[in-house]
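Batch manifest line 253
LIGAND: IPE
JOB: complex structure
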Amino acid sequence: MTDARLDRLPRHVAIIMDGNGRWAKRRGQPRHAGHRAGVESVRDVVEACADKGIEVLTLFAFSSENWRRPKPEVKLLMELFMLVLKRETRRLDTDNVRLRIIGDRLAFPDKLQKRIRDAEALTATNDGMVLQIAANYGGRWDIAEATRRIAARVAAGELDAAACNEQTVAEHLSFAGLPDVDLFIRTGGEQRLSNFVLWQAAYAELYFSDLLWPDFDARALETAFTDFAARERRFGKTTEQLKGSDEDQGLPG
Ligand code: IPE
Ligand code: IPE
Ligand code: MG
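JOB STATUS: finished
ARTIFACT:
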């Protein structure tokens, strides 16, 4: 397996898989055809990331706002999620992938919740890539949940309110223990965050692709990785500091 850091590959990639509906519409097909076609891209991208040695891949499958869509589309998306979990979990397990579903799963039908639990349990001990599927997920929901858990622990006397800091919040988010997002990709041409990983993408490199999600594949991902590798991530420092030069470090005298 390649070392992601040495090759300037992102450790954590998060993707807003957008454009399924438009993809279908362009072909004169109903929106659900686009969602089905999108599953193929998911398979392609998951495999490519695992092969590359990416540590964490987080895919936005259904946002906390997507309930606002027409009922039949929401129903179809739930059914597709059920089907994909059933069909793909064994293969993920064989590939040593650990599957995590992040988001408010309590809103899902009982059968789907059970399937999620089973899929997570089957792959729980795998130590390869972590694949997070964000379903009924919202960045604000994640932060609000963390806040609620922290408040409960403070009230129970387990945590000192005065000692709560960024680390405390991070430890209570759904990504606890995983690296922050390095590369944030959105397909479908829109350039917005749509309430995805708000906290965890604080220093992510943003990459927008005009390709509609069903047209996005391992090659398109490779282009995103090449673009990422050429970025200079300064994290607040100066270019000179990053180059290790002792000139112009802003130090007095
Ligand atoms: C993304 O594609 C999939 C989900 C949000 C579930 P869209 O369904 O948003 O496709 P467009 O943006 O309408 O083309
Ligand atoms: C974001 O896409 C959610 C997912 C891809 C799952 P949307 O299509 O729902 O986002 P907006 O509404 O265009 O911002
Ligand atoms: Mg969309």
